[in-house]
Amino acid sequence: MSFRFHFGRPQRLAALVLLLFLGAALFTIGRAPLTESDYRYALCGREMWEKPSPALGYFTTCGNMQGDGTAAYRAAALPLTLYVQVLRFQDWRERRADAAKPPGERTYVANSVQGSVYDLRHQISGLQYLLRVPFALAAMGLGASLWWVCRRQFGNVAGFFALCLYCVLPPVLASATTPNNDILAAWGLFATIYTALGIAHAMYGPAEKWRPRIVLFTVGLGVTLCAHVLAGVVALCFAALFMLYVAERRRTLVLPLLIGSGLGALCIVFASYAFRLAPFFYVFTAGAARFTVQTAAAKLFFSDFRNLPLTATLALCLVLYFAVRRSRYFGNTAPLLVALALLPMQTTQLVTWPLLWAVPFLLTFAAGIFADALETRQRKLYLLLGGAVIATETLLAVTVVPSLHQ
């Protein structure tokens, strides 16, 4: 099977928008000082990569990571671990070269890089970038996935509407500039559900077209579970529901596929715990997927003045969804159902932000309604409204970005 990717004008424009988003994220990262939370993610992540189980009975000195997963810790610490390993290798080469010299000509002075992250903060320049850039890249990946899904379903204009609005949302910028599992869970959840839909549609064709997507679905589900167990459970439930709905004549294949992908995802989670059974089993007994249903967080999110353009857009989209019959089809209904399920969720074991997980689905729903509106006689009016929403949200983002983490 051959994969073809045409990097034409739409792809170049999307890449430009994402690069501007990355620039804003780097600007914010450079201005925000390191916090205790940053050091914690880096310290525990380095222990995962370099020396798991430093304390008897625990995976790391931070505990067994059952509540918020391992993904963010490993992502935050991976660039730092690689950088430290390079420094150690250079130190080893200098020591070997100096040892080959006569005793009177040796000039080697040890440059230890064995200290903690806090001790290395003055030895490694740009430490804040090493810890935070992986999450900016994850946010870019989510934005690219959002654009790809919306463009394939609703067209170029709707895809860019969703992408531009996503890139200027202050909550997205905040999550892209600090270590956290929520942006990784949001990306994994969105990609997993829409990959499952892609598998269901491809089941009507030859097997070689949907087998690679099963691998991608398995990896996405595994990464989502590593970020947060609840997000992985939600992804698996909606993937099963949508696949059973779409694959009408191939429903007998759905259950074996989900079982196989689920087992593969658990292997990824097991690998994230360095193949250690004790912390891996603790994932199933710690209640990490427990949640309650509350609306206070959603009310606070939509009443925040920084999110008012998004709130107004979604309100108009809901009116059009219920008023215009042609807008009530699966492409618009599926993301709305996922978003409605995520908005009232509040985890009990650890403070997380399921609202962020719902953002790409809300934007997908808005893009679908926007595409439908553009096919009416009021096309120019809706184009002006869409441009006004993006411009207003951009102005709000410009005012709040410098102080996101101050």
UniProtKB/TrEMBL annotation:
> Where do transmembrane segments lie in this chain?
129-150, 157-177, 183-202, 214-247, 253-273, 308-324, 329-347, 353-374, 381-404
Q: Which UniProt keywords apply?
A: Membrane, Transmembrane, Transmembrane helix
Instruction: Tell me yes or no: is Transferase among this UniProt entry's keywords.
Output: no
Q: Does the keyword Transmembrane helix apply?
A: yes
Q: What is this protein called?
A: Glycosyltransferase RgtA/B/C/D-like domain-containing protein
Originating species: Terriglobus aquaticus
